[in-house]
Design a protein that fits this description.
The complex is a heterotrimer of chains A (about 170), B (about 675) and C (about 100). Chain A is mostly helical and about 170 residues long. Helix content of chain A is about 75%, strand content about 0%. Chain C has a single domain, classed as Helix Hairpins. In chain C, helix 2 packs antiparallel against helix 3. Classes of the chains: A mainly alpha (about 170), B mainly alpha (about 675), C mainly alpha (about 100).
C-alpha cells in the first residue's frame, strides 16, 4: 500500500466518477481516457510494463480515437454534445446496483483469508511473454486473430450504410 | 558558474513548460500564454549563456551526461545530453533570436483570435529545437527532429482556413518526411552495426574513434565505405529539413504561415537544423576522407548539393515578386552556402555563417513582417513602394539586413562569414567549382536584394495600401533594432584578424592573420558585391513613373528566362508530373489487381457455393423441413410466453444481471462458502 | 490491509463506477464506455493477483490480460459500429428508445 498506489487510485476513480457526472459527451470521453491512463499507470506500478504499454496503445491510443470518431459521426449539432441528464428513477437504481455490487465484492475481499506471506514480484520479460504467446498459447493467439478479423468485418457490415436503390442504377 | 551537461535538460524543458501552460490557457488568457512563452525563452537564454561559459572553459571537450531511458528485453536504450561549443553557440542563438521573435509576435499577432494557440505552438517549436541541440543520442535527436517537423506543420498551417496555408503545411510535412525516411534508415543501420546511438560515450559512442575506424573500414555494396553510406543517408534528412536541392520546394510555400513563423522557422532556426545535424555527425562524414579507392566521399556529395542549391536559390530569387518568397529563396541559397562550407571541409565556417545568417535573416523577415503588417497584408513588391519615408526604423534596419546578406564589406556580419565560406571553398583541393558557384551567387544575392529594397522602400507608393502605411509600435521595431545591432556587431567575433569564434567553436586555435596578407579573393568578392549592387541600382533604382502593373525590366530584356525563373524552374510541376503521376499509376494498378484478379477468384468461389447450396436445398425441402416446422412452432409458442419479460430496454437487462449477481453472491457468502 | 486487498477494492470500486455509468447514462456511447471500464476493472484484478498472490506459472496473469485487452478492442469496434447503426436508425443515441425488440 504505497503512496503511488493511492495517487493512482484517486486518479482512476476520480476521473471515472467525474465522467459519470459530466453532461458533456466529449468531456466524459476524455475523462475516461484519463482513467484508462491511470490504469496503465497501475500496471506500471505493479511491474507489468508490457501490459501497461498495451493498455496505452489500445485504450489511450486506439479506442479513444474510435470513441471520438463515433461521437463526431453521430452528432448533428453542438447542442447534441450535451446529452440528457439521467432520469432520476434510473439513476437511483443505478446507484443502488453499483453500491450493492461493490459492497458484495468488498465484503468478499475482507471475508476471504489470503496468504499473508509477502510475494516477490514475478520476473517477466518481453521475451518471456513472446515465448509464452508463441508456445503455450499459440492456438489461442490464432483464434484471437480470427476473432479480431471477424469483429472487423462485423463492424464494417454494421456501420456500412444501406445502399439506396438509386446509386445502383447510376 | 557551475553548469554541466547534467543540467542541460532545463534549456528545452522551460519552453516545453510554457507550451503546456499555453495549451491549457483558454482563448482569453493572452497575457498568460505570451508571458509564459517569452519568460521561458528568456530563462532558456540565460541558461544557454551559462552553458556557453562552461563550454568555452574547455572548448575541445565534449561534456556529456548519459542515462538509461528504458529497457526492452536485454537492450538498454540510453540517451543523454551533450555540451560542447557547437551546442552552446546554437542554443544561445536560438534562444536569443527566438525571444526577440516572440516579442515581435506580440505586435504582429495582436489581432488574431487564436493568439494563445500561436504562442503555445511557438514554445513547442522552441522546445523541440533546443532538445535537438542538446541531445547526445541520435535517437533523441531524431525524436526532437520529428517534433520540430510537427511544430512547423502546425505553424505553417496556422491559418488553416486558407486553403493555400493548409496545402503548404501538408507539402512541407510530406517533403521533409522524404528526407527523414533516409535519416531514419541511416540511424537504424547505424544502430544495427554499432548497437548504440549515443554520440559520445567514453569511447563507445558512434562519433568516437573506435566506431569511426570500424565504420570506415567496412565496405558495402558498390564499393562505398559503410560510413559513407550511413553519412549520406543521414544527409538525406538534412536535405529535407534544410531545403536543399532537390527537396527545396517546400520552403518557399511555407511562407504561407504568419511572418514571425517564417522568421523563426524558415530563416533562423529550423532550417538550420539540417546544417547542425551534418555538423554534429561531422566526424562520421569525415571518416572516409582518408580512403582512396571509394567511388565518392560523403562530403563531396554534400558540397555538390550545397553548390547547386546556392546557385539555384539565388537565381530563382531574382524573379520573385512576393517579399517573403524572395527572402525564402535567399534562405535556400544561403543554406546552400552552409552546406557547401560543410562539404569543402570547414564546418566551423558553416556554423559561423549559420549563426550570422540567423541574425540578419531573422531581421529581414521581421522587417518584411513589419512592412506587411503596416501595409494591410500586402506582400507583393509591385504593389508597395515608397515606404522608406513613412517607416524610417523599418527601412533602416531592413537596409542593415540587406547589406549583411549581400555581404557589404567590413561593417556587416554577413561579409565576414561569407568570406570564411569562400576561403574554405578556395582551399578545397578537389574542385574549384564550389568557389565559382559561390562567387556567382554573391553577384545574384546583391542584385536581388537591391531589387527588393528599392521595390519596397523607394519610389512612389503604387497602391493605396502602401500609401497609407505607417510605422509600427515599439514592440515590433524594438526587436528589429536589437537584431540590426547584432547583424553589425557580431561579425567581428570571427574576422580573420581575431578568429575568436572559429577557435572556440572547433576547439582548435585558429591562428589570426592579417586581412591584407592574401587579399586577392576578398577583393574579388568585394568587387562582385559592388557589381551586383550597382547592376541592381541601375536596373531598378532609377525607375520613374512605374505603377503596379508595369513590367519588370528584366522581363522586358529576357522574357523567356524571367518566366522560367518566376515559375521556379518548374520543380513543382515536374514533381507533380513524375512522382505524383507515378503514385496515381501504382494506385490504379493495385486497384485493377484487386478488382479483377482477386475479385474474380472470390466470385468463382461464390459461384461454387451457390451451386452446392442449390443441391442442398432440394434435399432439405422434402426430407427435413417437415420435422423442423413442428419443432419451430413449439419454440415460437414458448418464445411468446417468455417475451413478456423482454421489456426491450438494455438498461433493464443490465440492472437485472447486476442485482442477480448481488443476490447470488450474498447467498454464497451467507451460506459460508469461502 | 495488504496490497492485494487494496488492489481488489480499487478494482471493485472501478467496476461499480463503470456499472453506474452503464446503468444511469442514456447515451449509447457512454454505456459502452462504462462497460469498457468494467473490463478494465477485471484486468486490474488479474494483474493484482499476478503480482501479489504468487502462482506456478509466472506469465499467466499478464497473458490473460493481453488477451482480454485484445478482446476488448474487438468488442469496442463492434460496439461502436452498433452505435453508428443505431444512430442511423433512430437519429439519436438514447438507448431507452431502442426498444424495437420488445416482445
Amino acid at each position: 500500500m504505497t503512496f503511488t498506489f493511492l495517487i493512482l487510485a484517486v486518479i482512476i476513480l476520480g476521473s471515472a466518477l467525474a465522467a459519470a457526472l459530466r453532461p458533456n459527451l466529449i468531456h466524459c470521453a476524455l475523462l475516461l481516457v484519463v482513467s484508462w491512463l491511470g490504469v496503465a499507470g497501475f500496471y506500471l506500478w505493479a511491474g507489468a510494463e508490457f501490459v501497461a504499454f498495451a493498455q496505452v496503445l489500445v485504450y489511450v491510443g486506439a479506442l479513444s480515437m474510435v470513441v471520438l470518431f463515433a461521437v463526431l459521426l453521430t452528432r448533428q449539432s453542438r447542442a447534441e454534445l450535451r446529452v440528457d441528464a439521467p432520469e432520476t428513477r434510473r439513476a437511483v437504481w443505478a446507484v443502488i446496483a453499483g453500491v450493492a455490487v461493490s459492497g458484495v465484492i468488498g465484503t468478499a475481499v475482507f471475508a476471504t483469508k489470503w496468504d499473508s506471506a509477502p510475494v516477490t514480484a514475478p520476473e517477466i520479460t518481453v521475451r518471456g511473454i513472446g515465448l509464452e504467446l508463441m508456445g503455450a498459447h499459440a492456438a489461442a493467439l490464432l483464434l484471437l486473430g480470427v476473432l479480431l478479423t471477424a469483429a472487423l468485418l462485423g463492424a464494417v457490415v454494421l456501420a456500412a450504410p444501406d445502399r439506396p436503390e438509386k446509386e445502383e442504377k447510376s | 558558474m557551475i553548469f554541466s551537461a547534467t543540467h542541460l535538460w532545463m534549456i528545452p524543458a522551460l519552453p516545453l513548460l510554457a507550451a503546456a501552460i499555453g495549451s491549457l490557457t483558454p482563448r482569453g488568457g493572452r497575457k498568460l500564454a505570451a508571458g509564459a512563452a517569452i519568460a521561458a525563452m528568456i530563462g532558456a537564454f540565460v541558461l544557454s549563456c551559462g552553458a556557453l561559459v562552461t563550454a568555452l572553459a574547455h572548448p575541445a571537450v565534449h561534456g556529456y551526461a548519459n542515462f538509461a531511458w528504458f529497457t526492452l528485453g536485454n537492450e538498454v536504450v540510453r540517451v543523454g545530453w551533450l555540451l560542447d561549443p557547437l551546442t552552446a553557440f546554437m542554443a544561445v542563438m536560438v534562444t536569443f533570436v527566438g525571444a526577440l521573435i516572440f516579442i515581435f509576435s506580440l505586435g504582429y499577432m495582436k489581432e488574431d483570435r487564436n493568439f494563445t494557440r500561436f504562442f503555445c505552438f511557438l514554445s513547442l517549436f522552441a522546445a523541440a529545437m533546443l532538445g535537438l541541440l542538446v541531445a547526445n543520442s541520435l535517437l533523441l535527436l531524431f525524436v526532437c527532429w520529428e517534433l520540430v517537423g510537427l511544430a512547423s506543420y502546425l505553424l505553417i498551417g496556422f491559418w488553416f482556413h486558407k486553403p493555400a496555408a493548409a496545402a503548404a503545411a501538408k507539402k512541407a510535412f510530406l517533403t521533409t518526411r522524404i528526407g527523414d525516411l533516409g535519416l531514419l534508415l541511416g540511424l537504424l543501420w547505424l544502430y544495427h552495426v554499432r548497437g548504440t546511438l549515443l554520440c559520445y560515450d567514453g569511447g563507445a559512442g558512434v562519433l568516437e574513434q573506435g566506431s569511426l575506424t570500424a565504420l570506415a573500414g567496412t565496405t558495402v555494396a558498390g564499393g562505398f565505405a559503410l560510413s559513407t553510406a550511413i553519412g549520406l543517408l543521414i544527409f538525406c534528412g538534412a536535405i529535407g529539413k534544410s531545403g536543399q536541392f532537390p527537396l527545396h520546394v517546400w520552403l518557399p510555400d511555407a511562407m504561407e504561415g504568419p511572418t514571425p513563423v517564417s522568421a523563426l522557422i524558415h530563416a533562423a532556426t529550423m532550417v538550420a537544423a539540417g546544417v547542425f545535424l551534418v555538423a554534429r555527425v561531422y566526424p562520421l562524414m569525415l571518416a572516409d576522407q582518408a580512403l582512396a579507392n571509394v567511388p565518392v566521399h560523403a562530403l563531396t556529395v554534400v558540397a555538390g548539393i550545397g553548390a547547386i542549391t546556392a546557385l539555384l536559390g539565388a537565381a530563382i530569387a531574382v524573379a520573385q515578386n512576393d517579399i517573403k518568397r524572395v527572402l525564402a529563396f535567399s534562405t535556400v541559397s544561403q543554406l546552400g552556402y552552409m552546406m557547401l562550407a560543410l562539404g569543402v571541409g570547414s564546418w566551423v565556417a558553416a556554423i559561423f555563417h549559420l549563426l550570422m545568417h540567423a541574425f540578419f535573416k531573422a531581421l529581414l523577415f521581421l522587417g518584411a513582417g513589419s512592412v506587411i503588417h503596416a501595409a494591410h497584408h500586402e506582400q507583393d513588391v509591385r504593389r508597395l513602394g515608397g515606404l522608406g519615408r513613412r517607416m524610417k526604423a523599418t527601412f533602416a534596419t531592413f537596409a542593415v539586413g540587406t547589406m549583411a546578406l549581400a555581404g557589404v564589406p567590413f561593417l556587416f556580419s554577413g561579409f565576414w562569414s561569407k568570406e570564411a565560406v569562400l576561403h574554405a571553398a578556395h582551399a578545397w583541393p578537389v574542385s574549384s567549382l564550389p568557389l565559382l558557384v559561390g562567387l556567382a551567387a554573391v553577384v545574384l544575392t546583391a542584385f536581388y536584394m537591391t531589387r527588393l529594397i528599392t521595390g519596397i522602400f523607394l519610389g512612389a507608393p503604387r497602391t493605396d495600401a502602401a500609401g497609407e502605411a505607417h510605422e509600427n509600435s515599439a514592440v515590433m521595431t524594438g526587436p528589429l533594432l536589437i537584431l540590426a545591432a547584432c547583424a553589425i556587431g557580431l561579425g567581428f567575433l570571427g574576422t580573420p584578424a581575431w578568429p575568436w569564434l572559429q577557435s572556440n567553436l572547433g576547439g582548435v586555435v585558429v591562428p589570426s592573420e592579417s586581412i591584407w596578407e592574401a587579399p586577392g579573393l576578398m577583393l574579388l568578392s568585394i568587387g562582385l558585391v559592388v557589381v551586383g549592387l550597382g547592376t541592381g541600382w541601375a536596373v531598378y533604382g532609377r525607375r520613374r513613373n512605374v505603377n503596379a502593373s508595369s513590367v519588370d525590366p528584366l522581363a522586358q530584356a529576357a522574357p523567356g528566362l524571367f518566366a522560367v525563373l518566376a515559375a521556379r524552374l518548374g520543380f513543382d510541376e515536374f514533381y507533380v508530373a513524375t512522382f505524383g503521376r507515378a503514385n496515381t499509376w501504382v494506385a490504379a494498378l493495385a486497384d485493377g489487381f484487386d478488382r479483377h484478379v482477386w475479385g474474380g477468384l472470390v466470385s468463382l468461389l461464390a459461384r461454387f457455393g451457390e451451386f452446392s447450396g442449390l443441391l442442398n436445398r432440394e434435399a432439405d425441402e422434402d426430407i427435413l423441413n417437415r420435422g423442423f416446422d413442428r419443432a419451430s412452432a413449439a419454440v415460437r409458442g414458448a418464445g411468446q410466453t417468455y417475451s413478456r419479460a423482454q421489456a426491450g430496454e438494455a438498461h433493464g437487462y443490465l440492472r437485472t444481471v447486476a442485482l442477480a449477481f448481488v443476490v447470488f453472491a450474498l447467498v454464497l457468502l451467507l451460506g459460508g462458502v469461502r | 490491509m495488504s496490497p492485494l486487498q487494496g488492489c481488489l477494492l480499487l478494482s471493485a470500486a472501478l467496476f461499480s463506477v463503470g456499472l453506474v455509468i452503464a446503468l444511469a447514462r442514456s447515451n449509447a456511447i457512454l454505456v459502452l464506455l462504462g462497460i469498457e471500464l468494467m473490463l478494465n476493472a477485471a484486468n486490474l484484478n488479474f494483474i493484482a493477483f499476478w503480482r501479489f498472490h504468487g502462482g506456478t506459472a509466472p506469465a499467466t496473469g499478464v497473458i490473460f490480460v493481453l488477451f482480454a485487452i485484445a478482446v476488448a478492442a474487438a468488442e469496442a469496434a463492434v460496439g461502436l459500429a452498433l452505435v453508428i447503426a443505431l444512430y442511423r436508425h433512430q437519429k439519436n443515441l438514447r438507448l431507452q428508445e431502442a426498444t424495437r425488440l420488445r416482445g
